[in-house]
Amino acid sequence: xxxxxxxxxxxxxxxxxxxxxxxxxxxxxxxxxxxxxxxxxxxxxxxxxxxxxxxxxxxxxxxxxxxxxxxxxxxxxxxxxxxxxxxxxxxxxxxxxxxxx
Amino acid sequence: xxxxxxxxxxxxxxxxxxxxxxxxxxxxxxxxxxxxxxxxxxxxxxxxxxxxxxxxxxxxxxxxxxxxxxxxxxxxxxxxxxxxxxxxxxxxxxxxxxxxx
Amino acid sequence: xxxxxxxxxxxxxxxxxxxxxxxxxxxxxxxxxxxxxxxxxxxxxxxxxxxxxxxxxxxxxxxxxxxxxxxxxxxxxxxxxxxxxxxxxxxxxxxxxxxxxxxxxxxxxxxxxxxxxxxxxxxxxxxxxxxxxxxxxxxxxxxxxxxxxxxxxxxxxxxxxxxxxxxxxxxxxxxxxxxxxxxxxxxxxxxxxxxxxxxxxxxxxxxxxxxxxxxxxxxxxxxxxxxxxxxxxxxxxxxxxxxxxxxxxxxxxxxxxxxxxxxx
Amino acid sequence: xxxxxxxxxxxxxxxxxxxxxxxxxxxxxxxxxxxxxxxxxxxxxxxxxxxxxxxxxxxxxxxxxxxxxxxxxxxxxxxxxxxxxxxxxxxxxxxxxxxxxxxxxxxxxxxxxxxxxxxxxxxxxxxxxxxxxxxxxxxxxxxxxxxxxxxxxxxxxxxxxxxxxxxxxxxxxxxxxxxxxxxxxxxxxxxxxxxxxxxxxxxxxxxxxxxxxxxxxxxxxxxxxxxxxxxxxxxxxxxxxxxxxxxxxxxxxxxxxxxxxxxx
Amino acid sequence: xxxxxxxxxxxxxxxxxxxxxxxxxxxxxxxxxxxxxxxxxxxxxxxxxxxxxxxxxxxxxxxxxxxxxxxxxxxxxxxxxxxxxxxxxxxxxxxxxxxxxxxxxxxxxxxxxxxxxxxxxxxxxxxxxxxxxxxxxxxxxxxxxxxxxxxxxxxxxxxxxxxxxxxxxxxxxxxxxxxxxxxxxxxxxxxxxx
Amino acid sequence: xxxxxxxxxxxxxxxxxxxxxxxxxxxxxxxxxxxxxxxxxxxxxxxxxxxxxxxxxxxxxxxxxxxxxxxxxxxxxxxxxxxxxxxxxxxxxxxxxxxxxxxxxxxxxxxxxxxxxxxxxxxxxxxxxxxxxxxxxxxxxxxxxxxxxxxxxxxxxxxxxxxxxxxxxxxxxxxxxxxxxxxxxxxxxxxxxx
Amino acid sequence: xxxxxxxxxxxxxxxxxxxxxxxxxxxxxxxxxxxxxxxxxxxxxxxxxxxxxxxxxxxxxxxxxxxxxxxxxxxxxxxxxxxxxxxxxxxxxxxxxxxxxxxxxxxxxxxxxxxxxxxxxxxxxxxxxxxxxxxxxxxxxxxxxxxxxxxxxxxxxxxxxxxxxxxxxxxxxxxxxxxxxxxxxxxxxxxxxxxxxxxxxxxxxxxxxxxxxxxxxxxxxxxxxxxxxxxxxxxxxxxxxxxxxxxxxxxxxxxxxxxxxxxxxxxxxxxxxxxxxxxxxxxxxxxxxxxxxxxxxxxxxxxxxxxxxxxxxxxxxxxxxxxxxxxxxxxxxxxxxxxxxxxxxxxxxxxxxxxxxxxxx
Amino acid sequence: xxxxxxxxxxxxxxxxxxxxxxxxxxxxxxxxxxxxxxxxxxxxxxxxxxxxxxxxxxxxxxxxxxxxxxxxxxxxxxxxxxxxxxxxxxxxxxxxxxxxxxxxxxxxxxxxxxxxxxxxxxxxxxxxxxxxxxxxxxxxxxxxxxxxxxxxxxxxxxxxxxxxxxxxxxxxxxxxxxxxxxxxxxxxxxxxxxxxxxxxxxxxxxxxxxxxxxxxxxxxxxxxxxxxxxxxxxxxxxxxxxxxxxxxxxxxxxxxxxxxxxxxxxxxxxxxxxxxxxxxxxxxxxxxxxxxxxxxxxxxxxxxxxxxxxxxxxxxxxxxxxxxxxxxxxxxxxxxxxxxxxxxxxxxxxxxxxxxxxxxx
Lengths: 101, 101, 264, 264, 194, 194, 361, 361
Ligand SMILES: Cc1ncc(C[n+]2csc(CCOP(=O)(O)OP(=O)(O)O)c2C)c(N)n1
Ligand SMILES: Cc1ncc(C[n+]2csc(CCOP(=O)(O)OP(=O)(O)O)c2C)c(N)n1
Ligand code: SF4
Ligand code: SF4
Ligand code: SF4
Ligand code: SF4
Hints:
The complex is a heterooctamer, with two copies of chain A, two copies of chain C, two copies of chain E and two copies of chain G. By secondary structure, chain A is mainly β. In chain A, 10% of the residues lie in helices and 25% in strands. Chain E is of the alpha/beta class. Chain E has helices spanning 17-30, 77-82, 100-107, 118-124, 131-143, 148-165, 167-185, and strands at residues 4-11, 34-39, 50-57, 71-74, 92-96, 113-116. Chain E has a six-stranded mixed beta sheet with strand order 2-3-1-4-5-6. Chain E is globular, with a radius of gyration of 15 Å. The chains are: A mainly beta, C alpha/beta, E alpha/beta, G alpha/beta.
């Protein structure tokens, strides 16, 4: 990837919440899908000059990745804090070998 | 009907076989559908200069009207010889009142 | 002068244009006989508009004592829908071949079906593009030789025959009437067409009738082979019968959804 | 320089064109994520051709690191079928909205289905013509207000929402894959799309996937209303699931008919 | 003057005028001429009169259709009427003898013409199927620019496969051609023998 | 010379430049002028810079778009760049004070311009939603051809139904308008007071 | 019909698309058929909002092909029917318009030109001149009005219905994206109050009386078997077209006589042309202005003498020579040199026109 | 590729449709996409019979829209792809051809003109000149060949593929129903043996290498967001079109210098024109003959001097002034009077042309 995006990284509950403000358009879809309501609006402005999201509003993050899954702009990446690597599949689908090229 | 068609009328078996040579194109569909094989080719030429059909080739006509039904050109009219009127419905379907106008 | 016996044409047939322009043995004549009888039976001659497509159906432009429009290839249904929307009191009949209906005009068929347009569509399925000289049609049978499948229709390359009534039945809303008849059974075909006209008159929804039909010219068949192909080959692939009647219960997926949604 | 955390985009996404051009909360982004994942999973990036229709899908013209053609409204499938017929080794994806698929391009959908073209068609169903500003689409729900149904869609005048997968399933030959997914279930949607791509790669037949999707801009919904409309209203009308899989027994009417017919 | 022949043939669909035109021009082509043949065609051909336009020349032919034929052939009632437009004062009108009344009615007495009893010959002596081959023979005879052999070869190319299946057919066709040729060559006047 | 004003407004989708243009021209229309307003529009508007072209004249306006504005308003980073093409030597560039660096970078020091701390005022004193109404006020002030009352009536026509629901909204808008007007009228120089 | 949509004169400030919708209402249009496309969409939006109040109908079709052919159906049924489209939609619309041309059907189509070819832009151009005037496989037997302001948009939409029904040629109002989307003042009026009589719309099918008995059936043909039959039909149409041409042709000219440079334009561009010419005149340049209001029939009789007395002709258009081709073909025989200021898909300002004029002198 | 369809020169007597099929085979066309329409049908009939023998492909589409867009797909994939159509099919084909014009795609379309407008007749005309040269919502950036004989039909179908792939403008061979259906002698040949090199067909998508890593992905656009972007694209295309125009333009003339009447025609009608001129010359009339082989680009440089030295121009065509409009627009500035012998949908004989010439002198 020749383009780099700067994350805002927040550790919360079981997750490390990486939010890429240059990608987040502030649609709020993730907020609605978070089962623990941890996501809410931040002060930081995003891609379209509207507020981005951040964790820490409701209960602690359980690293279910629902927000990551539904974000249409790939603006969220949830890492588990349990030390598992950073390569979780986006949509939790099994990785196929063809992907390794 | 302001146009008149001249029939060739042949009495055969139970039927009076009216054939309108100006309409018959000699397709032979009727011949194939006749259950008693009474229909065959005549010497007379029809609408397209090809032979028309006539009864009297196989067993006598049973006035089933199948030939009349399938003729795409309305070139056949079968009257029953039993004296019933000339107004049988073409396709043996019940007449609706609207038709009377 | 005594009036001699006269041909028993449906009243709505126009004697002045007979013999009609179709080939010897053409099924169009039989379908139009069924249609004529149905119009007679319903007594709707004065308010029926007949539209014929481009295809051999165009030859019917002066067939009836009905106001008739010879339209454009594949576009008969939109023309008649345009008329119906403008003057709902008229009864509109859209008459076409399988090419016009299932190929170039398929978007209109699909859309009229889903809109439940009040139009009666009659499609003459003769498995070929007849007017243009016998090319493959959407309905050509597997293996059938045509001018563009000279070695027989190869299903791997060109797919299977289009199932028109099945297509319409899959998407038409409740109230639709969908049937497939055949010129091999004129009485049944006439009944289907009559029901299709009634469906429109009663404002229930779209009526779609496919008629299996013969084209001896492009099939290059004699009368016996014509009947065999129609009654054996075609009927085996295209089952005759009613697929949707307005009385039936609407399928679950077609049920009415409460009238809300996002605000405008 | 330490590499910071980076967005977990599918590999085939083109980072240079991100953020993409779709609105905030637009389902297109989610569908294209599912597609990207499926392409990644199958390792077919080098031989996949992506075609996008005119409609909001046109905004994906530089979305992927895939050779991409921004085509013409409703014509994406023919363009890609043209490519596939010319170069069968390629994998072609035809991406469009419901207007392009079910209205202006319906004849192509119907024909590709009946021909069993080796193409994977993805239709984004958002119940409106989005790019043009929110007019009624073939999929607009009964009662839904749009720019051309300002008082709510009246089923009596405009019919019921088009059931695309049901339509394709009714006519596609054996070997077809037909499913309806939703951006509300990305994992399932990705699986459907992946199966659809496999179906093409294995030469079994057409693959057709409809994705229920969101258009907050034209729905004028906030995030909560967006999800509700998608998951409650739309899903109630458009059932999610697989409608045809290539393993199934072909329906009786679709069976192979012996390869004869009238002589040429 | 070099050969430059214009022939219009008109008949009913089944009468085979297009085959006559095709075989005649095929033969002329192989004999080294520059023929041009075009059928009429339209949406209602099935029921209409079939017309063939034939031109045979030593140089390439210009327009595919023409206003007035050197020879016009009419083989049915309707064809007699339909062909009227192609007949000028110099035109030789060839028609089946059975149509004499129609011809008189439409063209009057003055028209240069040749009545050929082709239908009668075909029905009696030969077979209705070769009616058009008699006409072909007449045209070959009347125009005189082709050897019979050229035409036989063209017949062979056209019907070779049928002749192979049924050799009597070949003989029938050759006889029809011969009969027509004899009828026509008595009126050799239009073409220029080479 | 009669009034003949050309204003281009550029901003992000959410910043409401089209509303400013609409209300301004509405007001001018009701005040008896011949305004012409056209938004830019394209297939990728969602993410692009939104531009409004406004012309206000005493006679009907000729072309809907123009090359160079008398006033150009730029309300975001991208808008500062995008608006470049409409800015000539005589143009008054109106921009949000927060964009001063951008303006300097793109236009250098010499450009006739007016920095308006609209964002700041909106955020602090008023409400982010009325940011654009401040800009509207600035334009009314700078051009000076409209009475504030004309503009208030136009606001009423546009937002009347909302004002009715929430009277505080009306007050908020009027205050924003007033603030902008005061900022702008200090620089009255472009239009001709009538 | 329900209450009149407009009584008296009504001044308004609105977009061109709204003007079109009001004009169609005022003209008594019965039904609109349409398919969405930018920049004509709002015509449908306004129509669908207002139509029910005035008992008018609307049908959203599946594509422009259907929009064209349903409009054909509407006029066959004797209704004042219309549709609107643009760009690629206009391309598709030609199929139905060719049928309307063949069968002499009084269809009315509002075209809001956008950039071409193909999808191109949704914005603006004058690139649909040739398509609208001569599209399809026919001979351009059409009437095409090119309005330049909202007032004219209103007037010519009303007039289009009348010309269509009077002369029975498919009729077009050739607008553009700028006119569609811009707001400017306009005066709406009721045509009757202005003394404009709306032509009666007579149905071509569905007439009273039992066909074949009480009257002949209408048997309307779109295809012919013989070349000669078609030729006869076309010859009649052409004769009637040419007979009405001088009656229908419209133009506008200003200080156009003995111009050093005669600027020729149509549609919205003519506003810039006129403004430039006025400015040039003020600056002492002997410029003139001619504008073709009807593109079909082209007002050649009006233009020819002016063009022959000019020193230079300058055709200005947002297309690559479509108007220029028409001008040159129409004025063939003159020697006045012609130049083009041709900007396909781009707006044109008075300043640009003035510069172009200056470059010629 | 399998064995060559033609080796050496082969004389034959066949219909024009058969000639087209052979020409496409000889040119190495890979695939034909098509939808039936008279009078082009037999092109498909012959193609489907012969294609399998030479490993060529065929797809029968659902309509001409699809035939056009699948052809677009074929050329995008880098294949020598073509289609054939006529009349109303040609009207529909314009949608795809507009896209080809926008995106510079080397499509090849054989048009066999029939009577218009709309369905009209299936027979013959020259009424698709404007449609083929300028159809769609674009600027006519196309190459259009108008052959007059079977030999030319063969030659120009081959050439069409080469011009298309060399210059990247949609290319048309504008035949007609007469040429399609008539039989005349023709010489078929293998282009290579005649020294004609077939242009290499480079794919525009599906190139080797991982896009985004080993190479840039092809991101082909059909739509632009700003007027200026579109203007830039069009300006480039127009420049390239004009640069190649003189290279591509072709014409034919005979005894055309200082003609009392210079007869101008194209396509099959030019045969009658030439024959008439020859006859007139023999009869002592100072007639000349000019024929446009390319209608786009129009061979204006060749025609202009001849026309300027003629006393009269007579445009002869089976259409109502479509060629005449092109001639007049192209020759604007000349004073030589122009007349038209215009017979939409009718064949034209040498005798008629001669009469028309006589009526001018
Ligand atoms: C736009 C257009 N494309 C193609 C044609 C040529 N065409 C005329 S009839 C026909 C096919 C008709 O087949 P079908 O609809 O099945 O009717 P049939 O002749 O078999 O009764 C075609 C393709 C046309 N007239 N118009
Ligand atoms: C031939 C043609 N007709 C109409 C249009 C205008 N148009 C552009 S996008 C669109 C609708 C798109 O709706 P849909 O296909 O559902 O996609 P969405 O925008 O909802 O994703 C239309 C009608 C066009 N570009 N071309
Ligand atoms: S879903 Fe993505 S774009 Fe939308 S608010 Fe959440 S992080 Fe931002
Ligand atoms: S079915 Fe009719 S047309 Fe055919 S042969 Fe019998 S009578 Fe004649
Ligand atoms: S070609 Fe076939 S369908 Fe057409 S009229 Fe003849 S038999 Fe009927
Ligand atoms: S308008 Fe709707 S479909 Fe289009 S990009 Fe925006 S949200 Fe997505």
